[in-house]
Specification:
406 residues, mainly alpha, Rossmann fold, Serine Threonine Protein Phosphatase 5, Tetratricopeptide repeat, five-stranded parallel beta sheet, two-stranded antiparallel sheet, 16 helices, globular
């Protein structure tokens, strides 16, 4: 298991990768979801690594503040004193984390020569009980400290051999017939002096990784590659507004009804963790258990009412459960918390269309296309709302825009 667990939003993958690279050079083992293996449940893998890590680093940004996954992982790190937070964008810290000093890495460019980053490393070292390699700060790609430790016994043996040789002990080597001869045979008379047939003992080669090689990097920042070339999504974040298009029991995040059991156990163990309550509610939602979803997410909202995603998914669950107007109230609150989030407008537009208020649905989907012009789902939603509202000409234009973005 790794020393350090990195929690970040998918939108910040490039900066997270740069941090992983530098920390790895410094001799620490680091886990981030790029390392997920094929064939394993991603939720279980992440939880296993989170539980085992001695240090949890969270990267705060506008995107991570909206991520329930990041909030949950950070809460687990904070609860048992393993959290080292860092700001990669100038954003206010979320509730519950404002008493913790966060490293200001907003202007960090990926090098070790940065005052705030140096202090950040010291905070990690204080948790792990060791300091980063000094050579790692001086050279761009130093040899991993763990390799040097493994070679210590071999290097000591080599030194002993050299010392014995220097003391005058003869080392034997074989001739072409396989007979042992002295390392310094007598020189034939009248011949040109030659070097001894047995060379001086060679230093034991140090088996280390190529210092010019960089840690593996993802080729595509929008995917999470694993051990093969097939990208494996680590934390799928399908917009909640698209939930209605999913068949019942087909989870958006790889969970199903039976998979909620472990989440229920987690919530029973720590009911005060709002992100865990939301995760359980989202699992219920994916399994079309809307009453239970509303109850679980309501507990999360009671603990923290400032996370737009909580209100968004609860609103959708209410609408699916026949409480469309109450669902709209939740979406209104979510939009007021994050007026630049296209996904929230899509979700609200979906509910407006579901309750027959097509003009407001048009307004919401149009706003979503303005905020996320490359989102084909927003354009399809707008085309549908315009059609239902009787504006077929505008609907055809929106449909062409949607198809061009697929």
């Amino acid at each position: 298991m790794a020393d350090i667990f990195i929690s970040y939003a998918r939108e910040d993958r490039r900066r997270a990768g740069a941090l992983v690279e530098v920390l790895t050079r410094h001799g620490w083992s680091v886990w981030w979801d790029k390392d997920l293996r094929h064939g394993r449940d991603f939720g279980e893998s992440i939880q296993e690594q989170l539980n085992a890590a001695r240090c949890v680093v969270v990267l705060w940004s506008a995107s991570s503040l909206r991520s329930a996954h990041v909030l949950e992982e950070a809460e687990e790190g904070r609860a048992n004193g393993r959290l080292v937070p860092a700001l990669i964008e100038a954003v206010p810290l979320p509730l519950g984390f404002r008493r913790l000093q966060a490293a200001d890495l907003t202007d960090w460019t990926g090098t070790a020569e940065h005052e705030e980053f140096t202090q950040f490393e010291r905070s990690i070292a204080a948790l792990l009980g060791d300091a980063p390699s000094a050579a790692a700060v001086e050279r761009p790609m130093p040899r991993p400290e763990t390799g040097n430790r493994r070679m210590a016994p071999i290097a000591a043996a080599a030194a002993l051999i050299i010392a014995i040789a220097g003391g005058g002990i003869y080392l034997l080597s074989g001739d072409s017939a396989g007979n042992a001869v002295p390392s310094n045979p007598p020189k034939p008379v009248g011949t040109t002096p030659e070097r001894p047939t047995t060379p001086a003992p060679k230093p034991v080669p140090e088996v280390v990784s190529d210092p010019s090689a960089s840690p593996p990097r993802a080729t595509d920042p929008t995917t999470r590659p694993s051990v093969s070339s097939t990208p494996v999504p680590s934390k799928p974040k399908t917009p909640a507004s698209e939930v209605s298009n999913q068949p019942p029991g087909n989870p958006l995040t790889g969970r199903n009804e039976s998979g909620c059991q472990s989440l229920e156990d987690s919530v029973r163990a720590r009911p005060e963790v709002h992100a865990a309550q939301f995760k359980l509610g989202r699992c219920y939602y994916d399994a079309s258990r809307f009453d239970e979803a509303i109850a679980a997410i309501s507990r999360a909202v009671d603990l923290n009412s400032r996370v737009p995603e909580y209100l968004q998914v609860r609103g959708l669950a209410k609408w699916k459960n026949g409480l469309g107007r109450q669902g709209l109230s939740d979406l209104d609150s979510a939009v007021s918390l994050d007026v630049m989030n296209a996904t929230l407008y899509k979700s609200r537009g979906e509910i407006h269309a579901g309750v027959g208020d097509y003009q407001r649905a048009v307004d919401d989907f149009r706003k979503a296309t303005e905020l996320a012009p490359q989102d084909s789902g927003a354009w399809f939603g707008l085309a549908d709302a315009l059609t239902r509202n009787g504006d077929r000409e505008a609907a055809e234009v929106a449909m062409r825009q949607a198809k061009s973005r697929q």
